[in-house]
User: Fold this.
Amino acid sequence: MNKQGLELIVITGLSGAGRTQAMQSLEDQGFFCVDNLPPTFLVKFAELCAQSRGKVSKAAIVCDLRGGEFFSSLSEALSNLEKEGFNIEVLFLDASDETLIRRYKESRRRHPLSPRGRVLDGIQAERQQLEELRIRADNIIDTSNLTASQLRTKVAELFCKSQGLGQMAVSVVSFGFKYGIPMDSDLIMDVRFLPNPFYVESLRPLTGEHELVREYVFGNQMAQDFMEKYLDLLEYILPKYIREGKTHLVIGIGCTGGQHRSVAIAERVGSFLKEHDYTINIKHRDAAKNQKRGLAQ
Assistant:
Protein backbone atom coordinates (compact mmCIF):
# COMPACT_ATOMS: atom_id res chain seq x y z
CA MET A 1 0.00 0.00 0.00
CA ASN A 2 1.33 3.45 -0.85
CA LYS A 3 1.27 6.28 1.62
CA GLN A 4 -1.62 7.98 -0.13
CA GLY A 5 -3.75 4.85 0.37
CA LEU A 6 -3.55 5.07 4.16
CA GLU A 7 -6.42 6.91 5.87
CA LEU A 8 -4.87 8.48 8.95
CA ILE A 9 -6.79 10.47 11.56
CA VAL A 10 -5.25 12.27 14.53
CA ILE A 11 -7.65 12.92 17.39
CA THR A 12 -6.84 15.66 19.84
CA GLY A 13 -8.60 18.34 21.84
CA LEU A 14 -9.53 19.35 25.35
CA SER A 15 -9.45 16.88 28.21
CA GLY A 16 -13.00 15.76 28.93
CA ALA A 17 -14.31 16.69 25.48
CA GLY A 18 -14.85 13.09 24.36
CA ARG A 19 -11.65 11.80 22.79
CA THR A 20 -12.26 8.27 24.07
CA GLN A 21 -15.76 8.14 22.56
CA ALA A 22 -14.43 9.43 19.24
CA MET A 23 -11.74 6.75 19.17
CA GLN A 24 -14.26 4.03 20.04
CA SER A 25 -16.49 5.16 17.18
CA LEU A 26 -13.64 4.87 14.68
CA GLU A 27 -12.60 1.53 16.15
CA ASP A 28 -16.14 0.26 15.53
CA GLN A 29 -15.78 1.35 11.89
CA GLY A 30 -12.68 -0.79 11.39
CA PHE A 31 -9.96 1.76 12.16
CA PHE A 32 -6.81 0.54 13.87
CA CYS A 33 -6.68 2.82 16.91
CA VAL A 34 -3.89 3.79 19.27
CA ASP A 35 -4.54 5.86 22.39
CA ASN A 36 -2.03 8.34 23.82
CA LEU A 37 0.72 7.80 21.26
CA PRO A 38 3.64 10.21 21.80
CA PRO A 39 3.85 12.51 18.73
CA THR A 40 7.50 11.60 18.18
CA PHE A 41 6.32 8.13 17.11
CA LEU A 42 3.69 9.34 14.64
CA VAL A 43 5.81 9.10 11.50
CA LYS A 44 7.14 5.66 12.41
CA PHE A 45 3.64 4.43 13.19
CA ALA A 46 2.30 5.71 9.86
CA GLU A 47 5.17 4.04 7.99
CA LEU A 48 4.45 0.70 9.67
CA CYS A 49 0.79 0.97 8.67
CA ALA A 50 1.70 1.82 5.08
CA GLN A 51 4.02 -1.20 4.94
CA SER A 52 1.38 -3.63 6.23
CA ARG A 53 0.35 -4.64 2.68
CA GLY A 54 -3.22 -3.56 3.18
CA LYS A 55 -3.72 -5.10 6.62
CA VAL A 56 -3.97 -1.58 8.09
CA SER A 57 -5.64 0.81 5.67
CA LYS A 58 -7.36 3.01 8.26
CA ALA A 59 -5.75 4.22 11.45
CA ALA A 60 -6.59 6.71 14.18
CA ILE A 61 -4.29 8.05 16.88
CA VAL A 62 -5.20 9.96 20.01
CA CYS A 63 -2.58 12.52 21.03
CA ASP A 64 -3.21 14.75 24.02
CA LEU A 65 -1.69 16.30 27.11
CA ARG A 66 -1.21 12.91 28.75
CA GLY A 67 1.90 12.75 26.56
CA GLY A 68 3.47 15.35 28.85
CA GLU A 69 6.50 17.08 27.40
CA PHE A 70 6.20 14.98 24.21
CA PHE A 71 2.85 16.59 23.36
CA SER A 72 4.45 19.93 22.50
CA SER A 73 5.98 18.30 19.40
CA LEU A 74 2.60 17.31 17.88
CA SER A 75 2.46 20.21 15.41
CA GLU A 76 5.97 19.39 14.23
CA ALA A 77 5.06 15.70 13.92
CA LEU A 78 2.02 16.55 11.79
CA SER A 79 4.18 18.65 9.49
CA ASN A 80 6.66 15.78 9.19
CA LEU A 81 3.85 13.40 8.23
CA GLU A 82 2.78 15.72 5.45
CA LYS A 83 6.36 16.07 4.23
CA GLU A 84 6.62 12.27 4.07
CA GLY A 85 3.56 12.19 1.79
CA PHE A 86 0.90 10.97 4.24
CA ASN A 87 -2.65 12.23 3.98
CA ILE A 88 -3.83 13.08 7.49
CA GLU A 89 -6.93 14.60 9.02
CA VAL A 90 -6.95 16.25 12.43
CA LEU A 91 -10.10 15.95 14.53
CA PHE A 92 -10.27 18.48 17.37
CA LEU A 93 -12.81 17.95 20.17
CA ASP A 94 -13.95 20.99 22.10
CA ALA A 95 -16.56 21.86 24.73
CA SER A 96 -17.59 24.85 26.80
CA ASP A 97 -15.86 25.57 30.09
CA GLU A 98 -19.14 24.94 31.95
CA THR A 99 -19.55 21.52 30.31
CA LEU A 100 -15.96 20.47 31.01
CA ILE A 101 -16.17 21.57 34.65
CA ARG A 102 -19.37 19.57 35.09
CA ARG A 103 -17.81 16.47 33.52
CA TYR A 104 -14.76 16.72 35.73
CA LYS A 105 -16.91 17.05 38.83
CA GLU A 106 -19.01 14.04 37.79
CA SER A 107 -15.92 11.91 37.15
CA ARG A 108 -14.09 13.30 40.22
CA ARG A 109 -10.88 13.42 38.22
CA ARG A 110 -8.18 16.07 38.41
CA HIS A 111 -7.29 18.16 35.41
CA PRO A 112 -3.80 17.23 34.10
CA LEU A 113 -2.71 20.89 34.03
CA SER A 114 -4.12 21.70 37.45
CA PRO A 115 -3.80 18.58 39.60
CA ARG A 116 -3.91 20.52 42.88
CA GLY A 117 -5.77 23.64 41.80
CA ARG A 118 -9.06 24.65 40.24
CA VAL A 119 -10.33 22.68 37.25
CA LEU A 120 -11.13 25.94 35.46
CA ASP A 121 -7.50 27.03 35.68
CA GLY A 122 -6.43 23.79 34.03
CA ILE A 123 -9.04 24.14 31.27
CA GLN A 124 -7.98 27.68 30.44
CA ALA A 125 -4.29 26.73 30.38
CA GLU A 126 -5.08 23.80 28.10
CA ARG A 127 -7.02 26.03 25.70
CA GLN A 128 -3.97 28.23 25.30
CA GLN A 129 -1.69 25.29 24.60
CA LEU A 130 -4.07 23.80 22.05
CA GLU A 131 -4.96 26.96 20.16
CA GLU A 132 -2.49 26.29 17.34
CA LEU A 133 -3.82 22.75 16.88
CA ARG A 134 -7.41 23.98 16.91
CA ILE A 135 -6.63 26.38 14.07
CA ARG A 136 -4.90 23.61 12.15
CA ALA A 137 -7.72 21.05 12.63
CA ASP A 138 -9.65 19.77 9.61
CA ASN A 139 -12.74 19.02 11.71
CA ILE A 140 -13.85 20.56 15.00
CA ILE A 141 -16.68 19.02 17.05
CA ASP A 142 -18.17 20.91 19.98
CA THR A 143 -19.45 18.16 22.29
CA SER A 144 -21.10 20.47 24.83
CA ASN A 145 -24.62 19.36 23.92
CA LEU A 146 -23.86 15.85 22.67
CA THR A 147 -24.38 12.57 24.48
CA ALA A 148 -21.70 9.90 24.14
CA SER A 149 -23.76 7.99 21.55
CA GLN A 150 -24.49 11.17 19.59
CA LEU A 151 -20.77 11.96 19.46
CA ARG A 152 -19.93 8.47 18.23
CA THR A 153 -22.58 8.82 15.51
CA LYS A 154 -21.27 12.23 14.47
CA VAL A 155 -17.71 10.93 14.18
CA ALA A 156 -18.92 7.97 12.11
CA GLU A 157 -20.80 10.33 9.79
CA LEU A 158 -17.65 12.42 9.31
CA PHE A 159 -15.23 9.66 8.48
CA CYS A 160 -17.35 6.76 7.23
CA LYS A 161 -19.57 8.47 4.67
CA SER A 162 -18.95 5.86 2.00
CA GLN A 163 -20.25 3.12 4.27
CA GLY A 164 -23.66 4.68 4.82
CA LEU A 165 -25.82 2.44 6.99
CA GLY A 166 -23.12 -0.21 6.75
CA GLN A 167 -21.56 1.33 9.85
CA MET A 168 -23.71 -1.17 11.79
CA ALA A 169 -23.05 -4.87 11.35
CA VAL A 170 -26.13 -7.10 11.45
CA SER A 171 -26.03 -10.82 12.20
CA VAL A 172 -29.11 -12.76 11.11
CA VAL A 173 -29.32 -16.10 12.94
CA SER A 174 -31.85 -18.82 12.17
CA PHE A 175 -32.51 -21.23 15.03
CA GLY A 176 -34.87 -23.86 16.40
CA PHE A 177 -36.85 -23.04 19.51
CA LYS A 178 -36.39 -26.64 20.68
CA TYR A 179 -32.67 -25.84 21.04
CA GLY A 180 -33.18 -22.52 22.79
CA ILE A 181 -33.06 -18.87 21.80
CA PRO A 182 -29.59 -17.48 20.84
CA MET A 183 -28.21 -15.79 23.94
CA ASP A 184 -26.90 -12.73 22.10
CA SER A 185 -30.11 -11.93 20.19
CA ASP A 186 -31.35 -8.35 20.18
CA LEU A 187 -34.50 -9.00 18.14
CA ILE A 188 -36.43 -12.29 17.97
CA MET A 189 -39.00 -13.24 15.33
CA ASP A 190 -41.04 -16.45 15.73
CA VAL A 191 -42.11 -17.79 12.29
CA ARG A 192 -43.76 -21.00 13.49
CA PHE A 193 -47.11 -19.64 12.25
CA LEU A 194 -46.02 -20.29 8.64
CA PRO A 195 -46.84 -23.59 6.86
CA ASN A 196 -44.21 -26.22 7.74
CA PRO A 197 -42.24 -27.85 4.87
CA PHE A 198 -41.38 -30.75 7.19
CA TYR A 199 -44.75 -32.30 6.46
CA VAL A 200 -43.94 -32.48 2.73
CA GLU A 201 -41.91 -35.68 2.39
CA SER A 202 -39.81 -34.47 -0.54
CA LEU A 203 -38.84 -31.29 1.33
CA ARG A 204 -38.13 -32.88 4.71
CA PRO A 205 -34.41 -33.60 4.16
CA LEU A 206 -33.74 -30.18 2.63
CA THR A 207 -33.08 -26.82 4.34
CA GLY A 208 -34.50 -23.36 3.80
CA GLU A 209 -31.54 -22.57 1.55
CA HIS A 210 -32.96 -24.89 -1.10
CA GLU A 211 -35.04 -23.30 -3.84
CA LEU A 212 -37.91 -25.81 -3.44
CA VAL A 213 -38.21 -25.05 0.28
CA ARG A 214 -38.15 -21.30 -0.36
CA GLU A 215 -40.89 -21.66 -2.94
CA TYR A 216 -43.00 -23.57 -0.43
CA VAL A 217 -42.42 -21.11 2.44
CA PHE A 218 -43.17 -18.02 0.35
CA GLY A 219 -45.78 -19.63 -1.86
CA ASN A 220 -48.78 -18.29 0.07
CA GLN A 221 -50.19 -14.80 0.60
CA MET A 222 -49.76 -14.90 4.38
CA ALA A 223 -45.98 -15.38 4.09
CA GLN A 224 -45.71 -12.66 1.46
CA ASP A 225 -47.70 -10.19 3.58
CA PHE A 226 -45.64 -11.03 6.66
CA MET A 227 -42.37 -10.59 4.78
CA GLU A 228 -43.40 -7.19 3.45
CA LYS A 229 -44.42 -5.93 6.89
CA TYR A 230 -41.40 -7.35 8.67
CA LEU A 231 -38.91 -5.88 6.21
CA ASP A 232 -40.69 -2.52 6.47
CA LEU A 233 -40.27 -2.73 10.26
CA LEU A 234 -36.55 -3.50 10.00
CA GLU A 235 -36.03 -0.71 7.48
CA TYR A 236 -37.65 1.69 9.96
CA ILE A 237 -36.03 0.64 13.24
CA LEU A 238 -32.43 -0.20 12.29
CA PRO A 239 -31.45 3.43 11.58
CA LYS A 240 -32.86 4.27 15.03
CA TYR A 241 -30.43 1.80 16.61
CA ILE A 242 -27.57 3.40 14.67
CA ARG A 243 -28.61 6.84 15.90
CA GLU A 244 -28.33 5.57 19.47
CA GLY A 245 -24.79 4.37 18.81
CA LYS A 246 -25.36 0.65 18.31
CA THR A 247 -22.75 -0.91 16.03
CA HIS A 248 -23.81 -4.57 15.98
CA LEU A 249 -27.31 -6.06 16.01
CA VAL A 250 -28.29 -9.73 16.18
CA ILE A 251 -31.65 -10.71 14.66
CA GLY A 252 -32.87 -14.18 15.61
CA ILE A 253 -35.38 -15.93 13.32
CA GLY A 254 -36.85 -19.04 14.92
CA CYS A 255 -39.04 -21.98 13.92
CA THR A 256 -39.51 -25.33 15.64
CA GLY A 257 -36.24 -27.00 14.67
CA GLY A 258 -34.39 -24.34 12.71
CA GLN A 259 -34.13 -26.19 9.39
CA HIS A 260 -36.81 -24.92 7.01
CA ARG A 261 -38.89 -21.81 7.71
CA SER A 262 -36.42 -19.87 9.86
CA VAL A 263 -33.59 -20.53 7.39
CA ALA A 264 -35.63 -19.33 4.40
CA ILE A 265 -36.76 -16.18 6.25
CA ALA A 266 -33.24 -15.44 7.51
CA GLU A 267 -31.87 -15.66 3.98
CA ARG A 268 -34.53 -13.27 2.71
CA VAL A 269 -33.89 -10.81 5.59
CA GLY A 270 -30.12 -10.96 5.01
CA SER A 271 -30.49 -10.27 1.28
CA PHE A 272 -32.79 -7.33 1.95
CA LEU A 273 -30.45 -5.71 4.48
CA LYS A 274 -27.43 -6.29 2.26
CA GLU A 275 -29.22 -4.41 -0.52
CA HIS A 276 -29.62 -1.55 1.97
CA ASP A 277 -25.85 -1.40 2.56
CA TYR A 278 -25.68 -3.06 5.96
CA THR A 279 -22.76 -5.34 6.74
CA ILE A 280 -24.44 -8.74 6.99
CA ASN A 281 -23.52 -12.09 8.50
CA ILE A 282 -26.01 -14.95 8.13
CA LYS A 283 -25.75 -18.03 10.33
CA HIS A 284 -28.03 -21.10 10.38
CA ARG A 285 -27.34 -22.40 13.86
CA ASP A 286 -29.46 -25.54 13.93
CA ALA A 287 -30.12 -26.53 10.30
CA ALA A 288 -27.43 -29.23 10.20
CA LYS A 289 -28.61 -30.77 13.48
CA ASN A 290 -32.03 -31.53 12.10
CA GLN A 291 -30.78 -32.89 8.77
CA LYS A 292 -28.75 -35.49 10.68
CA ARG A 293 -31.47 -36.41 13.13
CA GLY A 294 -34.52 -36.13 10.86
CA LEU A 295 -36.44 -34.26 13.56
CA ALA A 296 -39.70 -32.35 13.04
CA GLN A 297 -39.37 -28.71 12.15
User: Anything to note?
Assistant: The two ends are 50 Å apart (CA to CA).
